[in-house]
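Good morning,

Attaching, inline, the backbone tokens for the sequence recovery test we're adding to the shared suite. The designed sequence is right after.
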């Protein structure tokens, strides 16, 4: 039986990933104090999408960095999140599959 996506978070073509993002966001919020003790090569924060995209400046990102994302506060029409671009030592881009997504996104930067 497929998970049901609540109507206020459903976007065309979505298959249930919104709840996964919400779950990640809940974990990040619950572990906020512990996240302050992450290794120096790791970092976390929030960013707000504008027209479905945001560029986050970060001097610690590498070509091998893994970035986890989660939706903190849905806005506009939420879509699937991805990180298509990492510019080592400079920034990374978080995109939504919805050009009208204005959600607040939590991110966790993990370096090897």
């Amino acid at each position: 039986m497929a998970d049901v996506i609540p109507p206020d978070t459903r976007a065309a073509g979505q298959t249930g990933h919104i709840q996964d993002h919400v779950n990640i966001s809940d974990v990040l919020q619950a572990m906020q104090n512990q996240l302050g003790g992450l290794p120096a090569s790791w970092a976390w924060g929030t960013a707000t999408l504008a027209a479905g995209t945001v560029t986050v400046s970060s001097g610690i990102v590498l070509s091998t960095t893994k970035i986890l994302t989660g939706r903190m506060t849905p806005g506009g029409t939420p879509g699937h999140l991805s990180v298509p671009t990492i510019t080592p030592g400079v920034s990374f881009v978080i995109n939504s599959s919805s050009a009208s997504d204005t959600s607040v996104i939590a991110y966790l930067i993990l370096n090897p």
